Request: fold
Amino acid sequence: MNKWLSILGTLTVIAALVGIGAFGWFSDTETSNTNTFTAGSLNLTLDGSDGTNVVKWVVGPMVPGNQPKGTFTLANTGTVAGYLDLENIVVTNQENDLIEPEASSGDVTSSVGELQDVLNLRLFVDLGCDGWISTGDVVFFNGKVGTIASNYEQNVLIPAGGTACITGIYDWWSTPDDNKAMTDSFELDLTFELGQTTGQ
Amino acid sequence: MKKWMAIISLLAVTAALVGIGAFGWFSDTETSNDNTFTAGSLDLKVDGKDDPEVIHITRTNLVPGNLWATQYGGQWVIRNAGTVGGNITVTIKNLKDVENGCIEPEVSAGDITCGTEIDQGELGKGLINRVYWSLNQPPWGSLTPSFSSLVAAEDQPVTGALFHLNPGESKNAYLYMTWDSSSTDNLGQGDSVELDIEFYLEQDHP
Reply:
């Protein structure tokens, strides 16, 4: 009996020693915790407004010789650079009254205005934000308002925290058809989009 | 079977990611809608009428030495029914200086232009010796230039600051044609004059 007890005790000690040996090798650990990933932002403001429509022009009564203009200040208040485009450009014209001088000049379209046919618009990237076309400014539209396209993929780079200016200069140069535009009006809608890539 | 399921799932995830990539770039838009541009209007009415804005007048049975109140011109109400201001220009056109035949006193006075042409009379050549325009409100005074005959006034535009009409404004425009007595008055016996008056309203220049 004592012999079996002795053998059992020896095996127990050996097993204990083996166990100590299994968890007792040299080792070291380092951690890589709290790794964080934060999304950037791309936030466009128009003349300081964020998410609010900006009515830039309410002009009238206009006459030949008028030259109204205005400059949009577009700011990227986000944390990543973006590219600026113009989209969803819509011109909606109104004849309003068809008065005698219009009819005498040959205006026969009682439901179609002509103001957009005599008023010229120059839209350009205004590098100096001074409201006038200067060296280096990019004129991307120069024509009668009624011929403007629905979008212009200008891809104007605006860095994070940066600004860009888009200016519109309207010119009503005297034309033989000026009288047809009396009392007429049009509404112009513009959408500015700041995209992360040039393909948007 | 499990292997094919895994491949199909992988492809689906990949396709979804590609889709996200195509439509998921950052963007922001701002609008400038409802910009409106409205043209003004300039609508001249003479005595409340539109076209024709050319008035035709005929004057007969004239005599020299008429008082101021009975001069031979005319009066018209000019109104700017438009929404922008403008200046009126008036011009005498298409003058007909008609002899209507020479009677004895004319011949005796030396009238030798007795034909039927429109330039045979003498009223327009200086018997009507003062031709000018005026308005019925201050600042008082005639408009320049004034003319010493209808022939001199023909096709000569008359305008000026006094002829300005604000939107909706009306003024009475007077044409004065007076025949002051002179030694050659008998040359005009039986003569008459016809003429057109053109009223032209032009917008204020920006």
Observations:
- Residues 10-21 of chain B have pLDDT under 50 and may be disordered.
- Helices of chain B lie at 2-23, 104-108, 123-127, 150-153.
- DSSP finds four helices and ten strands in chain B.
- Chain B touches chain A at residues 25-43, 50-51, 82-84, 203-206 (CB under 8 Å).
